[in-house]
């Protein structure tokens, strides 16, 4: 997930070896396959084979004060809501139906009970809205900042989850909703696209899907890497949010749409026939934009608003893992 505080972080790309993704690749390469795990590390959620009960999707997210939200300026109910919503979004990205959640809290001792009750109010309201049962968790208090960890379980719909790895050359690349500028508020209030994903999955054969959490360009690169393909994206076709156009800084609205993250929209690929069909008649009236195509050659190209073809790097948030001990430098 792309944190909201360090907005400039997307520009300052950390070197590959120090990124969270290099660490995840490292874990992945050391984690043996397991017969009960058809989908393991590397997608938006894992798929577990749970005996006779069938298959179960599982995902976990951790949100930290000062990184993913600011407790001193936010109603804790919005923070609780966000914690559950980001995990619902990962289940949506697999076209799954969430059914249960487990929440772990590290509460600041100061005002701990009060904050916890507001967090719970936000979680309960969203859980009710999406028919998700809160089945457990863990509650701790400390002198550190608020941390919330949410785990959500889901079931695959239409028999199979949609993975990041199924994109094929020639596919249309589609995205739901609007992109960019979530820092102005949408990162707390976004609607996880659970119903939309299920409706799309029923209406068409989705080849690959991911939710836009790190940034459109970064998450597109995740999907391309998993699928072993490349892409071409047209800046003119990006659905740029009103917030992205309103932010007054050094970056253009297109750059915000490409790199901001925390839009929690669905980015997916389908055959051109299915793409035409979905765009002509979006199920449930979902807003869909056809932003580009998958190509066999690796790499990603952007046709900018002036019609120039430029390389599109994986703009977006990356957690940087420092080589030195941060404690030594008093950070
Ligand atoms: P998302 O943005 O969809 O939540 P992430 O980029 O956080 O996905 O994670 C990518 C993949 O790496 C996921 O499959 C996730 O479960 C896995 N992953 C992340 N951190 C760890 C970790 N510390 N141990 C094992 N798997 C991890
Ligand atoms: Mg995700």
Model description:
Helix 2 packs parallel to helix 3 and helix 2 runs parallel beside helix 5. The protein has a seven-stranded mixed sheet with strand order 7-9-6-10-8-11-12, with helices on both faces. The two termini are 22 Å apart. The longest helix has 18 residues. The radius of gyration is 19 Å and the shape is globular. Strand 3, helix 3 and strand 4 form a beta-alpha-beta unit. By secondary structure, it is α+β, with helices and mostly antiparallel strands. It contains nine helices and twelve strands. Adenosine-5'-diphosphate (ADP) binds next to helix 1.
Structural class by SSE content: alpha+beta
Strand order of the largest sheet: 7-9-6-10-8-11-12
Which percent band covers the strand fraction?
15-25%
Which consecutive residue ranges, at least 5 long each, have pLDDT under 50? 4-12, 325-331
- Give a list of the ligands: adenosine-5'-diphosphate, magnesium ion
Q: Output the helix-strand order.
A: HEEHEHEEEHHEHEHHEHEEE
Distance between the termini: 22 Å
Total number of β-strand segments? 12
What Rg is obtained from the alpha carbons, in whole angstroms?
Answer: 19 Å
Q: Provide the helix percentage.
A: 25-40%
- Sheet with most strands: 7 strands, mixed
Helices, by number, come to 9
Shape: globular
Oligomeric state, counting identical vs distinct chains:
single chain
Mean of the pLDDT scores?
A: 92
């Amino acid at each position: 997930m792309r944190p909201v505080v360090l907005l400039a972080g997307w520009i300052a790309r950390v070197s590959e070896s120090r990124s969270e993704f290099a660490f995840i690749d490292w874990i992945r390469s050391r984690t043996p396959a397991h017969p009960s795990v058809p989908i393991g590390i590397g997608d938006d959620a894992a798929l577990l084979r749970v005996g006779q009960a069938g298959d179960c999707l599982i995902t976990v997210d951790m949100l930290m004060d000062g990184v993913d939200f600011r407790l001193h300026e936010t109603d804790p109910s919005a923070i609780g809501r966000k914690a559950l919503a980001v995990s619902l979004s990962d289940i949506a990205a697999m076209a799954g139906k969430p059914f249960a959640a487990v929440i772990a809290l590290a509460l600041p001792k100061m005002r701990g009970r009060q904050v916890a009750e507001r967090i719970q109010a936000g979680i309960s309201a969203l859980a009710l809205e999406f028919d998700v049962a809160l089945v457990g968790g863990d509650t701790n208090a400390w002198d550190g900042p608020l941390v919330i960890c949410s785990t959500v379980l889901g079931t695959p719909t239409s028999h199979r989850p949609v993975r990041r790895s199924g994109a094929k050359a020639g596919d249309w690349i589609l995205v739901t909703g609007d992109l960019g500028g979530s820092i102005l508020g949408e990162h707390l209030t976004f609607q996880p696209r659970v119903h939309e994903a299920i409706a799309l999955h029923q209406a068409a054969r989705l080849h690959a899907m991911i939710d836009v959490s790190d940034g459109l360009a970064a998450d597109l690169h995740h999907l391309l890497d998993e699928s072993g393909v490349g892409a071409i994206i047209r800046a003119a076709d990006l659905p740029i949010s009103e917030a992205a156009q309103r932010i007054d800084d050094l970056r253009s609205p297109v750059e915000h749409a490409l790199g901001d993250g925390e839009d929690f929209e669905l980015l997916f690929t389908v055959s051109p026939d299915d793409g035409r069909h979905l765009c002509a008649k979006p199920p449930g009236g979902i807003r869909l934009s056809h932003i580009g195509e998958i190509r066999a050659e690796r790499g990603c190209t952007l046709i900018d608003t002036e019609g120039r073809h430029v390389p599109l790097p994986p703009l977006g948030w990356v957690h940087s893992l420092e080589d030195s001990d941060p404690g030594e430098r008093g950070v």
